[in-house]
């Protein structure tokens, strides 16, 4: 039993040392690009949460290296906010966004990101879509091909003053 416990302790210590060491080393990846895609789960906040409870979507991201740890990025995303209860005068809202931004890798695996652009929002009960400012800020982790992030997104409302905001969890893959 003592050998088993000592083995587990040695494994945990090795994992901690390796992780700490990996976070201080410079990237060996050397690629001058970033390309990937995400699944998005959005949770509306503020006034948007009064009429919508969830949102689901997809996002593609591409970028070029602009510094040792900095990428200039572009994203194309689609998120749908279903009106599940039909308790308001609105239908499902879909938002297609095109954004440009930056992604900074604070360590080998941890990044900070910010984006801004235009979001084309469409209420299914309206005959046309409306282009409005959209932006997000967030952070995430990137291990191998897998990445996950937590973002706060805001877009200008279609029919009233203010912003429609959501907290988004993004899970996907990316090469860098």
Parts with pLDDT < 50 across at least 5 consecutive residues: 1-28
Biggest sheet architecture: 8 strands, antiparallel, barrel
Quaternary state of the chains: single chain
Helix-residue proportion: 10-25%
Q: Taking strands numbered 1, 2, ... along the chain, how are they ordered across the largest sheet?
A: 1-2-3-4-5-6-7-8
> In percent, how much strand structure appears in the residues?
over 45%
Count of DSSP H/I helices? 1
Any idea how many domains? 1
Order of helices and strands: HEEEEEEEE
Per CATH, the class reads Mainly Beta
CATH architecture: Beta Barrel
Structural class: mainly beta
Q: Span between N and C termini? A: 44 Å
Bulk shape:
elongated
Mean pLDDT: 83
Number of strands: 8
User: What Rg do the Cα atoms give?
Assistant: 20 Å
Key attributes of the depicted protein:
about 180 residues, Porin, mainly beta, eight-stranded antiparallel β-barrel, disordered N terminus
Walk me through the structure.
It is a single chain. The chain has 176 residues and is mainly β. It has one domain (30-175): Porin (Beta Barrel), CATH 2.40.160. Helix content is 13%, strand content 57%. It has one helix at 2-24, and strands spanning 33-45, 55-65, 70-81, 93-105, 110-123, 130-143, 146-156, 163-175. Strands 1-2-3-4-5-6-7-8 form an 8-stranded antiparallel barrel. A hairpin with a 4-residue loop joins β2 and β3 (70-81). It is elongated. Mean pLDDT is 83; it is low at 1-28.
List the helices and strands and how they pair.
Layout: H1 2-24, E1 33-45, E2 55-65, E3 70-81, E4 93-105, E5 110-123, E6 130-143, E7 146-156, E8 163-175
Antiparallel strand pairs: 1-2, 1-8, 2-3, 3-4, 4-5, 5-6, 6-7, 7-8
């Amino acid at each position: 039993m003592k050998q088993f416990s000592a083995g587990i302790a040695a494994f945990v210590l090795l994992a901690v040392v390796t992780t700490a060491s990996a976070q201080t080393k410079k990237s060996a990846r050397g690629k001058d690009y970033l390309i990937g895609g995400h699944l998005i789960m959005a949770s509306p906040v503020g006034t948007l949460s009064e009429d919508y409870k969830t949102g689901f979507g997809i996002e593609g991201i591409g970028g070029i290296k602009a510094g040792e740890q900095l990428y200039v990025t572009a994203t194309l995303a689609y998120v749908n906010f279903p009106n599940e209860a039909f308790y308001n005068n609105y239908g499902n809202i879909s938002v297609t966004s095109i954004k440009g931004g930056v992604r900074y890798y604070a360590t080998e695996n941890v990044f900070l990101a910010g984006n801004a652009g235009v979001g084309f929002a469409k209420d299914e009960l309206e005959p046309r879509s409306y282009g409005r400012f959209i932006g997000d800020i967030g952070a995430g982790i990137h291990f191998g091909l897998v990445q996950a992030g937590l973002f706060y997104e805001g877009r200008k409302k279609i029919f009233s003053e203010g912003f429609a905001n959501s907290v988004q969890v993004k899970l996907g893959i990316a090469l860098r």
